[in-house]
Amino acid sequence: MVATVAALHSIGLATQVRADAFSQGFITTIIPAIQQPGPRMTTDAVTLDPTTYADLPGWADDDHLSAWKAFLASCKPVLSAARSGAKSGTQTPSQNLLSACERALGIARTAAPQTIAGAKLFFETHFTPNAVTQSVNPGLLTGYYEPLVQGSRTRDGEFQTPVYKRPPDLVNMVAESERGAKSHQLTHMRQTDAGLVPHLTRAEIEQGALSDQGLELLFFRDPVDVFFMQIQGSARIELPNGETVRITYDGKNGYPYTSIGRHLIDAGKLTQDNMSLKSLSAWLKADRPRAEPIMWKNQSYVFFRELKGAESESAMGVLKIALQPGRSLAVDTAFHAIGTPIYVAAPEIKHATKSGGFHRLMIAQDVGSAIKGPERGDIYFGSGDAAGRKAGVTKHPGRFYILVANDPTDSKTTASERP
């Protein structure tokens, strides 16, 4: 699972944190899966109001083919999970959404060439847009990306700080796709002869509790870099021989995330005005003995695995979905099923598009533990420094329009379309 820009996400001030940053809050209002079209649907928390594509700001100008490709990337994993009974979130895809996925895959196998107009027609044929009106959390969009870090396969010279593979005694207590919605509890535990117990804390692990068990995956120069890498949840690693590998989240020790940035502000060490990734990293790196006990206040620790073969070609979301820059959206699966198309309107996000303003069809393909609410989303901006700069300054209001899959037996839905 890809994680957010460590920058302001990890410190709990501007944006959100991803794989490791399990927020202390927890939404208790759960609505039925937002996947059934029709008349106005209301719960105590959320109202879905059917609307038209003409009412979606910027819809006609979007690159629907890019959204189509992102949707296709979701369809096989979503269908596979549904057929196997695997849980893909608190909300699971409706049968109508699964049918739309099957139709999309069929078109992809037979239709060529694909076009923006054809992709636009596909979405307009198979989905009805529904405006979200809600009282849970104001609509908020942040950004995340995949960093590039130097590392080594062996502990040698300056590369002394390990990241660990998933321990064999680690037990998931909730589905990975649900860990955001259930981040108030221990999401993972340790299997012992006496039964399940809480796993080792960050302090215990970093003081060597997992050493010499063959679990070391890679080694890095600085424990501060490892700390932020764990918050981000994935990275591309440059090895000394010039090889580049990709690692991704593979479980955690189960403890909730604690914001060390907030702790430093409360302790008067840094101020909210000067808090940033740069200032926090500099403060931690300036004095390692001082930094260690501060980082240990965040007991949560993330384990990694190296991606191989086709998996290594891109960052991964939940269900091993290949993430698409600018099209993949991390959502709260208490409200949205993985694979759901969501049109995002955020006119104040002007740094991410050439035209100014962010009006884009995105696909729910990832989760984040601080993503709470029906209009809370995290935009995946891609890999590298340029993506990181975009992600690091993204914290803007936005509106969600859920594309609810139509009944495949409706005459409109059975109309011919070829992207």
What does this protein look like?
By secondary structure, the protein is of the alpha+beta class. It has 10 helices and 19 strands. The strands form 4 sheets. It has a 10-stranded mixed beta sheet with strand order 1-2-3-19-15-16-14-17-4-18.
Per-chain topology:
Layout: H1 6-9, E1 41-42, E2 46-50, H2 64-84, H3 95-110, H4 116-126, E3 127-134, E4 140-146, E5 148-150, E6 161-164, E7 170-172, E8 188-192, E9 195-197, H5 202-209, E10 216-220, H6 223-232, E11 234-238, E12 244-252, H7 260-266, H8 277-285, H9 288-295, E13 302-306, E14 328-331, E15 341-346, E16 358-367, E17 376-383, H10 385-392, E18 395-396, E19 399-405
Parallel strand pairs: 4-17, 5-11, 14-16
Antiparallel strand pairs: 1-2, 2-3, 3-19, 4-18, 6-10, 7-8, 8-9, 11-12, 12-13, 14-17, 15-16, 15-19
Helix pairs in contact: 2-3, 2-4
Short account of what is shown:
The chain has 419 residues and is of the alpha+beta class. It has helices at 6-9, 64-84, 95-110, 116-126, 202-209, 223-232, 260-266, 277-285, 288-295, 385-392, and strands spanning 41-42, 46-50, 127-134, 140-146, 148-150, 161-164, 170-172, 188-192, 195-197, 216-220, 234-238, 244-252, 302-306, 328-331, 341-346, 358-367, 376-383, 395-396, 399-405.
Keywords:
10-stranded mixed beta sheet, 24% strand, Barwin-like endoglucanases, 4-stranded mixed beta sheet, Ribosomal Protein L25, Chain P, 19 strands, 419 residues, 24% helix, alpha+beta
